[in-house]
């Protein structure tokens, strides 16, 4: 089949594949559908391919010295015994404080370290590094892994639906480079390579830029991760919203965001394995766009944070209140992540929001629960870091690398993909040898080749001198407010940003950072660069109340209407203003803007000709809340519009 004809069928194939796989995902316990006669023929064909590849791989393996192999296996058993002894000691938490038990745990840890060091020496004696460094078997290994993980029956079920889906499988099995890239990125979710190929081909057909570079890696990541449909989290009121995330639209969303410069600058350096932990969110694409715009409007300082440990995710610490009292006020018209920043939550909702906002900006992240607590881990240029929880070794992930330390080891080894191929080749050979997959030193009892992969990975980590980053925000995972405050220097406001302007009609525009009190950032009131240009003021939800003032000259005495351009992420807020310390304060109802720029309803204040002082205070119904202010506008009543409608800016 010609390439044009093949690509022409991909759009229809994606619809078919999504429907079939979606039904399967919705009912995993359903009885398997009997194979058609054509599908049985395909099953036999794929089975023959698998067996032939298995024989080719077995015949190509090097001869291993029997004593060296025996020594390596014996060292593995020593590690297993030492680990079992340590686990037995840990299973009695009531006695953890007893000195004898502490000594036993320390001795067990030392025994594990000695046994693992002996295993590394035994691995060296096997002399397998030159063999694992060669790419001669890569094509056979990759094709075997695809057939093995998909299973001949699974591929036949997909390909047997029609000629177009059979052509897709043929295309995949004849593309050695694509299969290598797929298995290097840990393969299709649940082995659904047929659907992954349908998604990948549809993306390539619809998007000319998806053929190379990071956009090809993005297309591959989406194809692999969405091979099993991802349930979409919609507002409760949106009963007509799609039930699952559309993978083609997910690609198009991130491609546009990348080309428009909306994502983190590091996005371009990520590979398909990393990107799988960007594109796998349950949020609708429009919510991803909202998250980026909201944070740029409301807290641009968090977006610009040079400390990658806290960039974007610091919004959890500063904006997502700890506590479940207000969760009852979640609104059915809002998306779940919008409700989280509005009403807060305990550790689960805070970690969910943290992962969401990282994904929105293109930063890989995954859940890292620990006993009694939810936290997250995410990518940084220096390595992966734990946020909002205890450090490495205290939790697990929901990836194939269950232990968080095993996940960490994989991320450290993958930093050099040339040498990391040695790890993957040993894993693939283990698959061909019929071994049970074990992806970490703490994740099971590996067979020979999987053990080779894990200890070769350990060698690579040691040779690279990789270090584990300390947890960020360990003490605030179950607290509201800062225990470790990220070091973000608040910029000063230039004179131009503080300039108060009086128009020809007497309208006075006061930049929010033109305060006469305070004149620089405080713990409560922060001056920051604005996404609109110039500067803006953020009144934090954290810390005690603090008033702020503006001193300026009015061209004439009289009544003025006062409005402010604001951004909020929570409702029921008010600003109160007093002119020149006289009379009752005017109450300004601050609109709930859901993270976008909006204008407050006008209130009237009385100004004197010449020097005036406006004093503002903030109050909120219920829990403390924050507001960002761009500027204030004072219009003489005679020049004010009789209309009170709001204007909205993005």
Low-pLDDT parts are: 1-14, 16-26, 640-650
Number of helices: 22
How is the biggest beta sheet arranged?
A: 9 strands, antiparallel
What's the shape? elongated
Q: Kindly name the structural category.
A: alpha+beta
Strand content: 5-15%
Terminal residue distance: 48 Å
Mean pLDDT rating: 90
Total beta strand runs:
16
- The percentage helix is 40-55%
Indicate how many domains the architecture comprises.
4
Question: What does this molecule look like?
Answer:
The chain is 43% helix and 13% strand. The longest helix is centred in the first third of the chain and has 28 residues, at 99-126. The protein is built from 22 helices and 16 strands. The chain has helices at residues 3-8, 10-26, 37-60, 66-90, 99-126, 129-133, 138-150, 152-159, 163-173, 176-184, 193-206, 213-225, 247-259, 272-275, 285-298, 300-303, 314-319, 336-343, 347-360, 404-413, 417-432, 448-464, and strands at residues 365-367, 376-378, 385-387, 501-502, 508-511, 525-529, 535-539, 548-554, 558-567, 573-579, 586-590, 597-599, 603-607, 610-620, 627-636, 648-649. The strands form three sheets. Strands 4, 5, 6, 7, 9, 12, 13, 15 and 16 form a nine-stranded antiparallel β-sheet that branches. With 650 residues, the protein is α+β, with helices and mostly antiparallel strands. The chain has four domains: 1-62 and 135-282, no CATH class; 63-127; 287-415 and 466-488, C8orf32 fold (Roll), CATH 3.10.620; 495-649, Sandwich (Jelly Rolls), CATH 2.60.120.260. A hairpin with an 8-residue loop joins strand 1 (365-367) and strand 2.
């Amino acid at each position: 089949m010609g390439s044009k004809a093949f690509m022409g069928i991909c759009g229809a194939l994606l619809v078919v594949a999504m429907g079939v796989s979606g039904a399967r995902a919705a009912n995993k316990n359903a009885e398997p559908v009997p194979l058609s006669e054509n599908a049985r023929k395909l099953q036999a064909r794929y089975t023959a391919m698998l067996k032939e590849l298995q024989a080719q791989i077995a015949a190509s393996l090097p001869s291993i010295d029997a004593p060296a192999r025996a020594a390596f296996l014996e060292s593995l058993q020593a590690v297993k015994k030492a680990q079992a002894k340590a686990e037995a000691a840990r299973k009695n938490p009531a006695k953890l404080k007893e000195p004898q038990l502490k000594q036993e745990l320390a001795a067990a840890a030392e025994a594990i370290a000695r046994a693992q060091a002996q295993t590394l020496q035994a691995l060296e004696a096997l002399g397998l590094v030159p063999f694992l460094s060669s790419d001669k078997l890569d094509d056979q290994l990759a094709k075997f892994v695809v057939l093995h993980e998909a299973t001949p029956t699974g591929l036949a079920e997909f390909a047997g639906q029609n000629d177009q889906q059979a052509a897709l499988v043929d295309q995949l099995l004849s593309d050695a480079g694509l299969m290598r890239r797929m298995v290097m990125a840990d393969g299709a979710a649940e082995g659904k390579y047929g659907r992954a190929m349908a998604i990948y081909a549809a993306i390539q057909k619809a998007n000319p830029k998806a053929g190379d570079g990071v956009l090809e890696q993005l297309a591959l990541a989406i194809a692999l991760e969405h091979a099993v449909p991802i349930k979409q989290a919609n507002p409760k009121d949106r009963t007509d919203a799609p039930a699952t995330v559309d993978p083609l639209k997910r690609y198009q969303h991130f491609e546009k965001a990348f080309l428009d410069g909306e994502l983190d600058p590091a996005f371009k350096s990520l590979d398909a394995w990393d990107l799988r932990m960007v594109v796998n969110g349950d949020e609708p694409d429009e919510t991803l766009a909202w998250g980026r715009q909201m944070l740029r409007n409301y807290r641009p300082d968090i977006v610009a944070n040079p400390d990658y440990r806290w960039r974007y995710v610091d919004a959890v610490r500063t904006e997502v209140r700890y506590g479940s009292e207000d969760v009852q006020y979640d609104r059915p018209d809002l998306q779940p992540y919008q409700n989280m920043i509005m009403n807060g939550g305990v550790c689960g909702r805070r970690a969910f929001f943290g992962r969401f906002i990282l994904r929105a900006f293109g930063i890989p992240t995954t859940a890292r629960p620990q006993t009694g607590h939810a936290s997250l881990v995410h990518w940084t240029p220096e390595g992966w870091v734990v946020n909002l929880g205890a450090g490495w070794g205290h939790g697990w992930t929901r990836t194939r690398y269950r232990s968080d330390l095993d996940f960490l080891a994989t991320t450290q080894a993958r930093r050099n993909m040339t040498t990391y191929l040695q790890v993957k080749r040993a894993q693939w050979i283990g698959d061909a040898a019929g071994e049970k997959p074990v992806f970490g030193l703490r994740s099971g009892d590996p067979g020979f080749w999987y053990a080779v992969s894990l200890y070769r990975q350990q060698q690579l980590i040691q040779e690279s001198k990789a270090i584990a980053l300390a947890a960020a925000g360990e003490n605030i995972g179950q607290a509201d407010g800062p225990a470790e405050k990220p070091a973000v220097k608040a910029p000063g406001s230039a004179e131009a940003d503080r300039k108060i302007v009086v128009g020809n009609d007497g309208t006075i525009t006061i930049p929010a950072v033109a305060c006469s009190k305070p004149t620089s950032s405080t713990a409560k009131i922060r001056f920051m660069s604005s996404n609109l240009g110039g500067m803006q003021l953020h009144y934090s939800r954290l810390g005690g109340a603090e008033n702020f003032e503006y001193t300026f000259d009015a061209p004439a005495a009289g009544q003025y209407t006062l409005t402010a351009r604001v951004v909020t992420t929570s409702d029921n807020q008010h600003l109160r203003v007093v002119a020149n310390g006289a009379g009752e304060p005017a109450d300004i109802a601050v609109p709930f803007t859901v993270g976008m720029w909006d204008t407050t309803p006008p209130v009237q204040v009385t100004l004197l000709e010449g020097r005036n002082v406006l004093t503002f205070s903030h109050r909120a119904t219920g829990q403390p809340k924050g507001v960002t202010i761009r500027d204030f506008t004072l219009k003489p009543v005679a020049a004010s519009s009789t209309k009170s409608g709001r204007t909205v800016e993005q």
